[in-house]
Amino acid sequence: MTAVTTAWKSVDVEPVSDSTLARLHGWWRAANYLSVGQIYLLDNPLLRTPLAREDVKPRLLGHWGTTPGLNFLYAHLNRAIKERSQSTVYVTGPGHGGPGLVANAYLDGTYSETYSDVTADTEGLRRLFRQFSFPGGIPSHVAPETPGSIHEGGELGYALSHAYGAAFDNPDLLVAAVVGDGEAETGPLATSWHSNKFVNRTQDGVVLPILHLNGYKIANPTVLDRIPKDELRSLMVGYGHEPYFFEATEETDLAQAHREFAELLDTVLNQIAEIKARPADDDTPVRWPMIVFRTPKGWTGPAYIDGKKTTGSWRAHQVPLANARDTPEHLQVLADWLASYGADELFDADGRLDPTIAELAPEGDLRMSANPHTNGGLLLKDLRLPDFRKYAVDVPAPGATIAESTRVLGSWLTDVVRLNPDNFRIFGPDETASNRLQGVYDATDKQWNAEYVGPEVDEHLARVGRVMEMLSEHQCQGWLEGYLLTGRHGLFNCYEAFIHIVDSMLNQHAKWLKVTNHIPWRRPIASLNYLLSSHVWRQDHNGFSHQDPGFIDHVMNKRAEIVRVYLPPDANTLLSTYDHCLRSRQYVNVVVAGKQPSPNFLTMDEAVAHCTRGLGIWEWAGSEVLGEEPDVVVATCGDVPTLEGLAAVDLLRKSVPELKIRFVNVVDLMRLQDEREHPHGLSNAEFDMLFTRDKPVIFAYHGYPWLIHRLTYRRANNENLHVRGYKEEGTTTTPFDMVMLNDLDRYHLVIDVIDRVPSLQASYATLRQQMVDDRLAAREYTRTHGDDIPVVRDWVWPAAHGATFGAVGATESTGGDNE
Amino acid sequence: MTAVTTAWKSVDVEPVSDSTLARLHGWWRAANYLSVGQIYLLDNPLLRTPLAREDVKPRLLGHWGTTPGLNFLYAHLNRAIKERSQSTVYVTGPGHGGPGLVANAYLDGTYSETYSDVTADTEGLRRLFRQFSFPGGIPSHVAPETPGSIHEGGELGYALSHAYGAAFDNPDLLVAAVVGDGEAETGPLATSWHSNKFVNRTQDGVVLPILHLNGYKIANPTVLDRIPKDELRSLMVGYGHEPYFFEATEETDLAQAHREFAELLDTVLNQIAEIKARPADDDTPVRWPMIVFRTPKGWTGPAYIDGKKTTGSWRAHQVPLANARDTPEHLQVLADWLASYGADELFDADGRLDPTIAELAPEGDLRMSANPHTNGGLLLKDLRLPDFRKYAVDVPAPGATIAESTRVLGSWLTDVVRLNPDNFRIFGPDETASNRLQGVYDATDKQWNAEYVGPEVDEHLARVGRVMEMLSEHQCQGWLEGYLLTGRHGLFNCYEAFIHIVDSMLNQHAKWLKVTNHIPWRRPIASLNYLLSSHVWRQDHNGFSHQDPGFIDHVMNKRAEIVRVYLPPDANTLLSTYDHCLRSRQYVNVVVAGKQPSPNFLTMDEAVAHCTRGLGIWEWAGSEVLGEEPDVVVATCGDVPTLEGLAAVDLLRKSVPELKIRFVNVVDLMRLQDEREHPHGLSNAEFDMLFTRDKPVIFAYHGYPWLIHRLTYRRANNENLHVRGYKEEGTTTTPFDMVMLNDLDRYHLVIDVIDRVPSLQASYATLRQQMVDDRLAAREYTRTHGDDIPVVRDWVWPAAHGATFGAVGATESTGGDNE
Prior knowledge:
The structure is a homodimer.
Chain A: H1 18-40, H2 67-84, E1 88-92, H3 98-107, H4 110-114, H5 122-131, H6 159-167, E2 174-180, H7 187-192, E3 206-213, H8 229-238, E4 242-247, H9 254-277, E5 289-294, E6 304-305, E7 308-309, H10 328-339, H11 343-346, H12 355-358, E8 402-404, H13 405-419, E9 424-428, E10 446-447, E11 461-462, E12 467-469, H14 473-485, E13 489-495, H15 503-516, E14 528-533, H16 551-556, E15 563-566, H17 571-583, E16 588-592, E17 597-599, H18 604-613, E18 615-617, E19 632-637, H19 639-655, E20 661-666, H20 684-691, E21 697-701, H21 706-712, E22 721-724, H22 735-741, H23 746-756, H24 758-763, H25 765-785, H26 790-793
Parallel strand pairs in A: 1-2, 2-3, 3-5, 4-5, 9-12, 9-13, 10-11, 13-14, 14-16, 15-16, 19-20, 19-21, 21-22
Antiparallel strand pairs in A: 6-7, 8-17, 18-20
Helix pairs in contact in A: 1-2, 1-3, 1-5, 2-3, 6-14, 13-17, 17-18, 19-23, 23-25
């Protein structure tokens, strides 16, 4: 590997030499030829014989429209990188740019180095063409299989978020981010321009946005292409950029286009170098340059097909010749199109690229396809994690102390920040303090490079800081993804209800992880860690519209090898869980934890043991008799359900002393699944040991109740499982009213037990009625006083029930690692 | 009701009179007083006795920061509306604007008319205050309970999308859309400014965006407040607007502020009137005005609390005095704050608003809180629907003809468009033609009011049209929601994988519908109809990243009373289903249907009968013997699973003639649920009749398989249910390879049957092996030829199996209504 030389060099802007021009144009023609070849050709890659019908793929799948523009930019960046030794990542925003990026990686040699069967010869070309959008081959996007990619572009709108995520804490890195004018219409992209207020000139790298304005989407013009040029300029100025315009039409002389763009690119890169060269303490507002790259869609393709305008129109978006095999005329259009690139001049008889053209590319890791930042696992360093046990809350007896779990986590994260000053960041949409992680501001600030008015109101804002807050969940997720994909660590804290905003981003990232798990050269990256707080049960300021625990359900649809969901019931279990998450790789870890004062149940040793198992019996809570089957299992998952479940057991123990109750708590939701479904899953034998094969199980769960059924429908005791959870009831009210409205409250759980344990139904009608009355009284009190009844609000586990944590904590700790 | 007079009047811009000024300021003070009262006061609403600790709510929940600005704007709009008789809707973008909008609705009388217990007197004030953010009361947002609201503002970012949706086809309506500078950072809001390129000057109403730039979010400054004013101006110009700036600080003289804003508002409304007055054929580009309203956060609140800057800072966001009851000093701050509004001058001894102040409000329906457009059901007219039976495809025998289902639907929609020229629109992110609905362009165009270059490329674009396409699912959903909420009809067509982009918007809309179902004065509105095509099995150009059928799962978490999911297996069932959806009210209807050529199975009569039941036995497909239990049930849901299921049955019928197979198809997914869980649910007896109590059921399902288990886990035959569906495998490949990679293919279904019917396991080992071999051969063929094997690709149901549709079609049709 060639070492990456960092630079931010300025060069003299002067006309490119004829030889450079020839290389640029040669490279572009070669990349375009290879792109068209990938879309259409099954065989005969260099057309050594006249193009025949059988040479054309039977199903033409792929996208041409954006590709020549991407190739043009790639060629020119190659020249500049080589001249400046500037480490550069290429982010391909437009969807379906795959053929272009694959072509460029092939031309610079990376592709053959990565995939030894795709050799730099005619047979390699044949394979390169054949595999594209072909069964068993590669997709049309800049997928994980593509060397140099951190961004698929397949779902639209977070090219710039990813680019900025890559730039954070990489002060010497240039990220050339090509933005499609289609994706520019998406919400996430539209707001991501404002990322430039968050990037710091000295701490971070530079993002160069290049708006690829080719004018059309699938079947429509694009908005940004159909507003006056002055308006577009204003928009970019309004976004805080200094825009540079490059414009070429189908009539533009191509040599002239190369000359002009090369000069423009040098001007822009020099401007970036000038900004980077300012003194470190220079706080002059920065206006980063960006480029508007207005070129014809499908540039260099057939101008008309069947008499219809194709190049420079939406008809060039996908496969312009949808049926190249169907008529001799269409076949001829394709043959002429391919011939127009003059492949004979570009590749020798063996299919090797002309060496003078090949010289355009930089060498080694300076090739954008080989930049190590795009295979972030290569650069990943373990976090230095302080011993989370030292941040434990004191738990002399279960429920004897109170803590805000996320605040406790924040004290540990504060030291995580201190120990990892350049590869760990916390992302959140203006909610980090609201989620009670504000302890981290003892160690760092929120990074903010827009205007600053003074310390009276601008608390914890600084030019450089480890906390990134913008009121856009899309941005937080996109920045974090970009940061992780380039080999760093972080977490995203968010209100539970709003995390659905990034459902489709989660999809894409989880799919990326799944695919990279099976690509040997892709090195594992740090997990994507969520901390969902202000959760459905305790987001007191907010009403019905803020209630939704369904992100867990969404995540569970992704592959078991990727996703993990944890619901630690108290502060110490949260610490243990999060330590595990920050050590893990290639997962999506969803952790749901409350921020409100709540009882602590487990000492740190117990917490570690419990988290290591992922679920277990809390013997101190139950009333079962060792060696006998319990009469009923009360199971809980989530902090509020655990509180209510314990309170229910307390009521039962007092009123029905003979009842043998087993209390089970679940931290790691995946443990409920079958071991064949998920690597964390319990065997049936283990499950039956915990939940019995035939006793009623009353399960108090944090989210939508049917998820528990989905996870357990094949278990022997499925039909005795009765789940309470959120069922879309409640609004702004007291915490207890919330659980009551959803039948998750302690009184209702007692009723559930009575109703399901046959022996109780006759003898405890009075107790049952008492529970019904207590519920109504609680509701009445709440509606009159606007508060919970004190006995509910201030409830703690009675020490009399047994203050010590029994056999459950007795096994060896494995360091809080639940794997 | 006072009739709404339409206007677009111009008035002379002149200084407001002193009496008007007094009314404006009086109204504003009253609205602010009522807002503070709602947040803090449990009792003593007019402070007739000195404020006591017990008068203050024990739990202070609510948001003050945005409220005074909202109240200021409301007061000024009242004046202008009255003067111009201009029908106006107020859209409150900032979250938690509830206290302000409730206060204004109370002041103009609407609130007491709507809620007769909240009277216009002291007792009414007490109730008004008490109910806010109180158990059993109303939320902090501009919730459905708030008269005049179509937009909760509780989840952030679609104020402008909703506003434009309301404006479409309401040429005389002004929509004043207040945009919070927090929500302005979200993606959906950032792109929604571009809606102005889609609204038409003559066909549609006018949206007046008012950027409420109060500078702070929960704990941070806002981006748009911390960029130079020129940059903000450029941004708004870049968005296509003419910005007007209003700026007030804490030092601004309030009378002067009223004077200036009144003048500015008149100038802006005159400019709108001038634009509206241009000749109908004037195609000059329109630059609509917008207002930047820069005012202090928490304006008129306490400047400092506990020595910390409060008004004009993020500390004013929520409840500035978080513990007003805790110390005498804090109580005094609240008392002084409340006193500052001079409630004695605003309300008489009985608590009635001073009549001269009350005169500020317009009358009847011109009051923004009473505008009928904000209770869209009042204005809703049934669609005129052509008889969908006339668009039926011919089905001489099952599988004998081929159609693209969505194209057939498009032919019917074409006439729906023709018959409903002013209250029906089709929304889609650049995919309407891709989803094969392009037939509608025979009747209409895509509405496009940006630049137009000519017919050679701008096909089907026009200044006015029924199809709305922008490459933002957020915009499509937001526009459609706004259109529906104001009493019109429409549908959203989208690629299945990308619909997750609007997961959280769906949440909010479904929750809105749920709440309005229980608000008597809210009239039912048309359902939100999705058409998801380019679905997971047949989106051939796209790879793994485009595959996700999980929107169904997401929707299923919402209340059963709201959500409906249909998977019609062919063209005629799709027609019948969609006719039903467009007739329905208050639902979210999700319809998943393919666009690729696919066999038709049911004649229209059969389709209507089948859709009416929602699921049923296809006797022609199975081989069961009347009066005997089948050996196995093959069930399918979704078009591709149905094709594979039928092909599997065909293989079985040929190879295992003695096997008694029942074939069940499910159109209405909710039928699988228990009747106690969903109004469409089957009783256990019905379910057992169809699926037996103990025979193997092989279920081929369109989406994630565990959803079927979740729906059926309580059914008697649950443990014999074996579901195949999408399990996150596949990428760009052939259609058959996709089903094969996910074990949903015909061969695998046959193997599933053999493995689960005990009598077959021994005797049909050869057949089983043949299936294994056939799968491998198909895969090999696919990977070699890039195409499906012809027998798979061109498969049709063999007529020999029985071409007629038996007893299943014999019941009475109920007109395709599956309710």
